[in-house]
């Protein structure tokens, strides 16, 4: 069967393969604009130079979007050696400052080959020391209440009305001004 009869489009006279071909034209001179370079990412702190993740236990908590959750955070902060941390991704946790029994003076783990699964999930790309977004630590109720008054004033007002002792209210007012 001839090629034209096998379902192929027939060529029209005067329409060869040169269709769509453009002849080179003179191009005006192009001005090159240098693009700014991104600064190099800072070097990550190595685990063996830090060991910070082995000096506390942290447990995820609810973000303070309600009076209940904000009141819970105040309660945590009323305790010694306890802080609250908000990481760069907005995740909240209560932090209990307590060193791991197996962290050696050289910042190496004494049970590294048999370390728990949770320890295996830590590395220097996921720790707060190398967090590019940066986090926020609250170590006192005053720190938290001042932050809450500027970021969530309505919630702050409702919390202070019922759940903050007068002495703490006075200290927060002095710190905020």
Share of helix, binned = 25-40%
Query: What is the CA-atom radius of gyration, in angstroms?
Result: 31 Å
Query: How many β-strands, per DSSP?
Result: 4
Number of helices: 5
Give the CA-based shape: flat
Adjacency order of strands in the biggest sheet: 1-3-2-4
What is the H/E string?
A: EHEEHEHHH
Largest sheet: 4 strands, antiparallel
Strand proportion, as a percent range, falls in 5-15%
Measured between the Cα atoms of the first and last residue, the distance is: 94 Å
Low-confidence region ranges? none
State the secondary-structure class.
Answer: alpha+beta
Mean pLDDT comes to 85
Describe the protein in words.
By secondary structure, this protein is α+β, with helices and mostly antiparallel strands. The chain has a domain at 47-140. Helix content is 27%, strand content 11%. The protein contains 5 helices and 4 strands, in the order βαββαβααα. A 4-stranded antiparallel sheet has the order 1-3-2-4. A hairpin with a 5-residue loop joins strand 2 (82-86) and strand 3 (92-97). Helix 3 packs across helix 4 (153-163). The chain is flat, with a radius of gyration of 31 Å. It starts with 55 loop residues before the first strand and ends with a helix. The mean pLDDT is 85.
């Amino acid at each position: 069967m001839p090629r034209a009869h096998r379902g192929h489009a027939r060529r029209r006279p005067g329409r060869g393969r040169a269709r769509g071909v453009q002849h080179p034209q003179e191009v005006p001179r192009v001005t090159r604009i240098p693009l700014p370079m991104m600064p190099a990412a800072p070097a990550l702190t190595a685990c063996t130079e830090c060991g910070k993740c082995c000096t506390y236990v942290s447990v995820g908590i609810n973000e303070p979007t309600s009076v209940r959750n904000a009141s819970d955070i105040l309660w945590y902060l009323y305790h010694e050696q306890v802080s609250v941390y908000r990481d760069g991704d907005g995740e909240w946790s209560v932090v209990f400052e307590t060193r791991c029994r197996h962290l050696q003076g050289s910042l190496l783990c004494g049970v590294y080959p048999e370390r728990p699964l949770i320890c295996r999930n830590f590395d220097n790309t996921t720790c707060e020391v190398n967090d590019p977004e940066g986090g926020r630590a609250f170590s006192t109720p005053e720190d938290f209440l001042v932050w809450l008054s500027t970021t969530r004033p309505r919630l702050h007002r409702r919390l202070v009305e019922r759940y903050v002792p007068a002495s703490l209210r006075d200290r927060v007012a002095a710190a905020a001004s």
